[in-house]
Amino acid sequence: AALPCLLTLTELTTCAMSTHLDSLQLQVEGCSFLLQILSQALEQDVEIPLDGNVTNSLVETVRKHCHNEELLALACRLLMMIAASEIAAENLWKVGVIPDLLSILRGFLPNGEICLSCCGVLWSLAVSENADQALLRSAVPVTSAVLQEHLRNGAVAESACSALWALSLQGCLSEDEFEPTTVLLLDALRENPGRAVLVKNVCLALASLLRLSEIPALRLVTDAKGNGINLLQDTCHLHFHDPQVVESICVLMNEMVQYGEMVI
Predict the structure, then answer these.
(1) What percent of the residues of the chain are helix, what percent strand, and what percent coil, each to the nearest 5?
(2) I need a labelling partner for 172 at 20 to 30 A (CA). Which of 19, 82, 102, 146 fits?
(3) pTM of the entire structure?
């Protein structure tokens, strides 16, 4: 019964935002209201079928007010929530949102909230059906910069690791990015060993890199901050009762074994 009402409110708010694009205050209030609507829908397990107008309106807002940190934090969080839908992700690809996200990340790198949201959107876009590999390649250095900046912020690091995993699956990393990315992922694991989702994503990202090159395997066993194998063993003991984390570690170790004596 709530769905028609929520849909109407979403459409009216989006329409008002598009009509008064120049009004910063209206954009802030509109994004705040949409966040309330979508959060309420999530709590009630109600899926709101959002059309292209909503994604287009949000991208217009981001482009028009690209220097306003408060608004970008709200708009990017909305984009992250919306991008979880395959249809919305497809719409975001159509409007070419990747350069906007990367520009926001470069401009507001210290802002953890914005970085978390943008990396969440990147993850959704990277795993979507019509992902553009060429465009996604440009996201690798920026996503790595986010992880480096927020290594000790577990939530942001987790989001960045998710994005790097998706980018590695798409084959977006160049050979000269294998080693620094491996080091960065190991650092994320050392700083956040208790975060199960981060651990899983780091291991799957490393496994993905190992399928492409022996460089990550060498770095895993020769890392200056400590042997990566020992780190994985300690992490496995820590998450012994979490089957998903243990499975991801096993996937990584299986890829390591392919390189034989090099990593033993």
Answers:
(1) 75, 0, 25
(2) 82
(3) 0.92
